Amino acid sequence: MDMIYWPVIFCGIAIMLVFNPFRICYYYSRRWFLRVLWRLLCSGLYPVEFKDFFIGDMLCSQSYALGNISLFFCLYKNHWNDPVQCNSNHSRLMGFFTALPATWRFLQCIRRYRDSRMWFPHLANGGKYLFTILHYMTLSMWRIQNWNVSYKATFIAMASCNTVYCTLWDICMDWSLMDPSAKHPFLRKNIGFKHTWPYYLAMFVDPIIRADWFFYIVYASQLQHSALLSFVLALAEVLRRFMWCFFRMENEHIGNVGANRAYRDLPLPYHLPQKSPTPSELEAAEPLAIPHGQTVAEHDLERMGTMRRRISRPSTTESPVLLVRTITRVGRSIGGAHMYDYERRRGRDEEVELSGESDDDDEDGEDFFERTREMGPPESATVHT
Length: 385
Hints:
transmembrane helix; 15 helices; membrane; inositol hexakisphosphate binding; EXS_C; mainly alpha; transmembrane
């Protein structure tokens, strides 16, 4: 058998396994995955849940694999004759497929804005994916136009904006880091991992891999090196996304603990009795110092007047303090914006009524929180502060 048919056999077996209708080979997991892919293909038509945008972000790091879909069909269409005609210098479809995951995420951001009417973070997040789309579009146009200088300049501008935008979003929004007032400098108030060095390492590695497009500029005229480089950079992006997942999930858990959607300490189902002070403790308490000849009411009025004068008195340090408070408030808003990335899943009865179909995915792990909240809170999570 000719070796050119081995990829077809492999893809055929993979498709058969994924779409296998029998309850074998992780049937519920496969059905869950296919449903998420369908919701992703129809981005903008469904409310965005955590699984939707999370899988969408995973596919954003698979742009190299998706781009090779057009290469695969082009090679077999031409019977593997003249493969050069199927590379990125001649294929507009390759640029389309590489930009497709970012387009899905952009539509999800628009849907989140439609449902919540919150321009931040949803429209701001959509702007990030818009720059990602422009990044892949200009890269494809530059390659097709035989490395034209004007297209090269446009690609560098779009890629630079996309790198800065995505890096800041990864660190400040998805990971909620760069808090100057945190106990650990430029991390955050609460961290889930015991050691701090993984956070600093991730903050150092993420922008470096985000700027990998620079190598396309260096090896633009070397076709063979460019093909090998594309594979290496795609592998680096997959590893970066693997790292991103850990800190994104950790940050989501910290946010759920803070919003009481996950439990750090077990809430007691009863009130603790308050201990009343003994007479000896009351006698030991320091009495209120009131000047001789002045009643309690007169003393309170005098204290209120003093406080008003202090408040109304102009302070030379008011402007710096106000600036610091404003920066702190903005930082907290940015750090907690990731909690509005998606909608909580609807109740089972409501979802079945809206979709018109039964939902018996009790074994596929679609939403662990929704299925276990009736059983009581889980074990307390350890959060390092």
